[in-house]
Amino acid sequence: MHNIFALYPHQSQLELMSEPTTINIPIEDLTISQQMTLALVGNPNTGKSTVFNRLTGLRQKTANYPGVTVEKRVGKFVVDSLSFDLIDLPGIYSLSPNSADERIAVDVLLGRVVGTPQPDIILAVVDATRLYQGLYLLQQLAELGRPIVVALTMTDAAINKNIRIDTNALENELGGIPVSEIVATTGRGMAHLRSMIKKVVDGERNTSDTSFWPELRHSAKTLEKKIGNSLLTLTEIERAIIDGDPTAVSKLRSALGANADAQIQECRNTLCGNDPPIAVETRARYNWITKTLPQLETRAFAPIRWATKLVNWLNRPIPATALFFGLMAIIFQAVFAWATPLMDIIDAATSGLGVWIQNTLPSGVVSSFLADGVIAGVGSVIIFLPQILILFLFIIVMEDTGYLARTAFLMDRAMRAAGLSGQSVIPLISGFACAVPGIMATRVIPDRRDRIATIIAAPFMTCSARLPVYALLIAAFVPNSNVGFANLQGLVLFGLYMLGILGGVGTALLLKRSALRGPKPSFILALPEFHLPSLRTVLFKLLDRARIFLRRAGTVIFTVAILIWAMAYFPRSDSIEAERLNAQEQASAILADDVLAAEISSINNEAAAAQLAQSWLGRAGQWVEPLFEPLGWDWRVSAAVIAGFPAREVVVAVLGTIYAVGAEANESSLTDRLTSATWPDGQVVFTLPMVLGLLVFYAWCLQCAATLAVIKRETNTWRWPIFAWSYMTAAGYLGALLIFQIGST
Amino acid sequence: MTLADLKRGDRARICDIDTAQPSVQRLMIMGLVEGTELECLGGSLGGDPMEFLLYGSALSLRRSDAQHFCVIPAPVTT
Q: What pLDDT digit, counting tens, does each position of A601-640 carry?
């Protein structure tokens, strides 16, 4: 069968138009496959991802484009047995890219990204309330000469603001591109949009090439004639003239030879004189927009509602600041209040399952592997989920309502002190609950250097996994006395939080002054109006984040958990096991039932401690003891710290095992053991300087496989996670060394 | 007078732009060209960045960028 891929205008929508000349163009690709690629393009905050979710439902996946950290979201949908691949491109305002995200969007549109086919159809999303800005990109998209459908979103908001848009006039002014009015949040108009897409596939193609800046098109055509073959599209030549687009320029060089640059420059001079070409382009295009816009939309006076007045008042600096801190307090309250019961349930379920396995299966390598390896490993992955998901829920709602942009606007000045911009504030604050959602929320930061500095700073913030370690050590070793009116234990905890902030901010500053130095970033941000969150969008995004966490971080945490289990389990000493059985037998023979259980449990704990001491983990602790001795740590503490590298909160359980009180021991019995722990020469191990040093180590070191896995995913290289790990471990080590050495003299 | 001199509630029309900075060119792409009328919605904490309303949508930019846009006062239309 010979496929005809023909394009707009389609008859029904444009009957009123004068009939343009149409030619049917066969597209060879389509005879091979019916699969067509659609690219979703539009300004940021136009509801693009809501349209994406509406079209694809759950048939979507997220990955990275090769070599860059730009998220690639691809989904599938079917219209009348025609199957489409939908690519959600990063938001852009024009074809002149400013960041890696924007460059990918432009490159995909021009068919230059390896592994991503050039879109057969462009689905342009335009906010009906921001047609003025939207028309700029629409002009450039229409000039591509490729099939386009326009989805006019937020039409409900436009009606509320008394904005009326004449879609027929819009179609005509754009040269016959079909426009579909939709409300993505409710799904209204989606059926019409689908039928439009289908019609563009079935329809006929308008060959008259549209241009909204004829002088530029003319220049491009003059150059095109000199090239001879169709190596470049007109748009590519235009981008070479205006932006000096590297790919297009190098193609022109190979076609025109030595004087290519001179010819491009000549075009530039004729068009723009001495002005920057982009400035001249914006003047030409907005000239067309301000002339045309009155024919496309009417704005009647909209009465200002009390809700708008309230929002405007809340946007003023002082109420906005109060609101910001109030909201943050509520969010943290919620994260901890809601997550703790869920985490307790997960904890009880996994440890219950582990105990059940150990009681059911004969004790040995299989039962330990399942209980302490697999179950505990899976548990250590999902124990994070409640907190991460609740925090994500808040971040996504903030993003969806438009509040995220507001916080960035509000905190920009303050964050500049750390060399960052306002967009880093939510990722960093999230770090106080868990660095993982914080790091994943850095995608909103357009500047690559700011983004990486924020990613490296976020793990310094005191996350909730540090709290069990802090709680144990502070309660056990910091005197519960008052200094003036402040409680010493409270002061130490506060100091640790401050140390985290100091470490993060200091690191960001250091990075922005060295490896990530660059031109002062600007802060240009469209501030979307507040609107109620769409449940659908929020749930889809939440599901997406959860999937990414489980797949990326989950596999890493699980693998490392199994590895640590193996290190702690192997090799098994038969003599310790024989001794344990012997001791149990003797105890059963002489002890009465009421004390027997306690005695057996104590025998088991002693045996577990002995086994751990001669395991690879114990040996590793002994092996690195010289390294940690200047910090005042004996081999037991060292082994526990090593075991804590995949997930820092594990250290409490490992200390429990190592000090022979059992992994599930209550705090007071562990505290007793820790206080009486001594070096071989009888000196106390857990002195105050040593404990304070250990606390500083935990404040700064990066003992979290999940964070490392997420840094890898978000920077798309192992370089940054390796740097973050080494840097933070070194910072923690030096901090602990300093405190112990000064405190002990 | 530049955009940076505007106070909350002031309306002005852009009359001249120092186009050299890339960030200024980005703002031009977003619609801040000669002839554009906008309204100042005030500043953030510490007066920087500033917020402006153009064609019904809000945009924020730092003072250092706002200084590159010369404006003349425009009548207040409400």
A: 888 888 888 888 888 888 888 898 899 989 999 888 888 8
A28: pLDDT strictly greater than 60: no
> Which residues of B are less than 8 Å from A94 in CB distance?
29
Rounded distance between C-alpha atoms, residue A331 and residue A309, angstroms: 25
Name which of B7, B13, B34, B45 to mutate to probe chain A: the one with the most chain A Cβ atoms within 10 A of its Cβ. Answer: B45
Distances (CA, A) of A75 to A125, A181, A186, A312, B30: 17, 22, 20, 38, 29
Across the A:B interface, residue pairs with CB atoms under 8 Å apart total: 116
State phi, psi for A516 to the nearest 5 degrees: -110, 30
Q: What is the ipTM of this complex?
A: 0.96
- CB contact under 8 Å between B19 and A315, yes or no, is no
- Cα separation of A381 and A706, whole Å? 9
Cβ contact, residue pair A526, B49, below 8 Å: no
In degrees to the nearest 10, what's the CA dihedral of A637, A639, A644, A645?
120
| DSSP state at residue A170 | H
Yes or no: say if B63 and B4 are a contact pair by the CB < 8 Å rule: yes
**Residue showing tokens 């809601």:** A338
Distance between CA A741 and CA A690 in Å, rounded?
Answer: 9
B19:A132 CB<8 A: no
Contact (CB<8Å) B26/A98: yes
Contact A133 B57 (CB under 8 A): yes
Q: Which residues of B touch A417 (CB under 8 A)?
A: none
Compute the distance between CA of residue A236 and CA of residue A537 in angstroms, rounded to an integer. Answer: 35
B-chain CB neighbours of A279 within 8 Å are 17, 19, 24-25, 28
User: Can you name the residues that pair with A126 across neighbouring β-strands?
Assistant: A152
Q: Cα A354 to chain center, whole Å?
A: 33
* Spatial contact of A422 and A411, defined as CB atoms under 8 Å apart: yes
pLDDT, tens digit (0-9, with 9 covering 90-100), for A81-113 = 889 999 999 999 999 998 888 999 999 999 988
Q: pTM for this structure? A: 0.83
What distance in Å separates the CA atoms of residue A240 and residue A259, rounded to the nearest whole number? 14
What mean pLDDT value characterizes chain A? 85
- Tell me how far apart the alpha carbons of residues A417 and A343 are, in angstroms, rounded to a whole number: 37
Burial A594-627 (b: 16+ CB within 10 A, else e): eeeeebbeebbbbbbbbbbbebbbbebbbebbee
Q: Is the peptide bond before A9 cis (omega within 30 degrees of 0)?
A: yes
Residue position matching structure tokens 């999937």: A547
In contact, A76 and A84? CB cutoff 8 Å: yes
Edge to edge, the sheet with strand B11-17 lists A525-527, B57-61, B50-54, B37-43, B11-17, B69-73
Beta strands in A292-352 (DSSP E): 297-299
What distances in angstroms separate CA A593 from CA A130, A599, B40, one per listed residue?
80, 10, 82
Two tokens at A611? 């086994």
Q: State the CB neighbour count (10 A cutoff) for residue A369.
A: 18
Q: Is the peptide bond before A626 cis (omega within 30 degrees of 0)?
A: no
Q: Is there a contact between A98 and B34 if contact means CB atoms under 8 Å apart?
A: no
pLDDT digits (tens, 9 = 90+) for A457-506: 999 999 888 888 888 888 888 888 887 788 888 889 889 999 999 999 99
Q: How confident is the model at residue A455 (pLDDT cuts 50, 70, 90)?
A: very high
Q: Chain centroid to CA A547: how far?
A: 12
For residue A130, the distance in angstroms to the closest alpha carbon of chain B comes to 7
For B61, the closest of A278, A414, A523 (CB atoms) is A523
- A44 secondary structure, DSSP code: T
End-to-end alpha carbon distance in chain B: 23
